[in-house]
Here is the input.
Amino acid sequence: MDITRFISTHRKLLLVGFLVLILIFITTLPLYARASDVRVLTTILIYVVLAVSWALFSGTTGYMSLAPAAFFGLGIYTMALLQKELPFFLIIPIGGLVSFAFAVLIGLVTLRLRGIYFAIFTFGLVVFMTEIIQFLETRLWHKHGQAIIPIDNETLLYTMLVLVVVTVLATYFIRRSRYGLALLSIGGNEEAAEHMGINTTRTKVLIFAISSMFMGAAGVIAAPSLLYVNATIAFSVFYSFMPIFMAIFGGMGQVYGPVIGAVIFGYLEKTLRAQLYSYFMLGFGIIMVVVILFLPNGIVGLVPMLQSKLGGLMARLRKGEQGEQHANT
Amino acid sequence: MRILEGQGVTKYFGGLAAVSNVDFHVDQGEIMGMIGPNGAGKTTLFNLISAALPLSSGEIRFKGQKLNGLKPHQICKKGVSRTFQETKVFANMPVLQNVSVGAFFGTPTRISTADAVREVTQALEFVGLSAMSATPVKDLTLVDQKRVEVARALATKPEVLLLDELMAGLNPAEVSEAMELVTRIRDKGITIFMVEHVMKAIMGICERIMMLHHGEKIAEGTPQEIAANKTVIEIYLGEETHAGS
Here is the structure.
């Protein structure tokens, strides 16, 4: 009883304390962990950025974008092409802006498509990007793929951490703002949203572009640890589907849903995939089915569900106690 | 003063004229009714006014300004709001949030959060939904969902409100309540243009009525004039009265 009261009254304080602990854990990890662990953590952070920014647009509006890989890959290639011309920290915002601009263009053309058509188009976009880069490389640049100069693990971890913080904060504030309300109402009923004074086209394109910007920036930071990329590696559809699975698995009602989904899935993927690849994919499929069938609000939705169940149980127990007391007196 | 008027309003779907060369006007402060059999083009005319559909030809003016070429969100900001025949609510959002959308985005100038909250509270109170502000709209009955739509439209601070079959599917007691609600909205100074099939309602509260048939306007006048009009009786009222309403 006292513990639950303590938690509810000091909720904000506890949350901040918890986040600080996580930040301390991540920043100090390179001091005592193996290099491979640092790389695993960096990969997980990449997934966090992709899942959170995907859910910002698709989770709220219901427009199922399968394009994360296109913008992520664009970031990777921005890094590959500019690495010798510009410093790393300058390429990150450039990668973001390239993806932003490309997303505005794509958004203006395609966001009038709804439902399955939009999903198919964005999927096609990933394939198209692969083809166009392959064409450029074989016909114009006369080389296959690009070598990328490695950057040390710590730098990559810390820059990715900064990007995670920026992405999560931006998403949090967008969702809390009027834009958040506009996005939800577009997801609820786009025609009604438009008739209630929301410039739906502008809202959709802008948020789609912002979410793509984070994916592009993530691509830039992810590139150095790949050492070598070609079109099929950079624009792998894997990067489109993983964030979606993670966001659905975690739950899209809150900002932290996709974060939790990405952390759990990213960790399992990185640690189990190497040894038990086929089992991993099998387990992955089963978990997805179970989550979609029984947890419509994702793994995050488990907490309120358990809370209400436990609360009911507690109330019944307490009633039972009182009943006994009455019986005794 | 004519607050809303249309001249030669025409809409083709392929070769079919859904609305054909219709002239109409709505005076400031009145309740204007529109009747007509199913498929007469009533909702299409509303869709043309609210810019859900582009005009094929003709012109619609609001307070003397042309509305042609504007987007629905711009029409709403100008002061023409609407409800839908088949309710288009944000089903998963609570009542309060539904109405907030209208308050935050529907007004011509950017509104502060405090003002929006006040606007929403007033609108909810006005339609009698204050007690349900936290309920998800999908859990409401049809009549309450329609109230949400009205509150949402009112929160945009409209000068003209288009009501598309507000009373369809309501029982007689609910119809009386809705009639009272519409009158109260008019008394606030909001001009009303309503499509309705429920004759008792439209005859009871409208100052003027127009009738569409096959996309053309075939009659216009006071409720008495409409009730006495031979063509109207032939096409429409005859069946309705026999149907027992």
Notes: Chain A touches chain B at residues 178, 181-182, 184-185, 188-189, 191-200 (CB under 8 Å). Chain A has a mean pLDDT of 87.
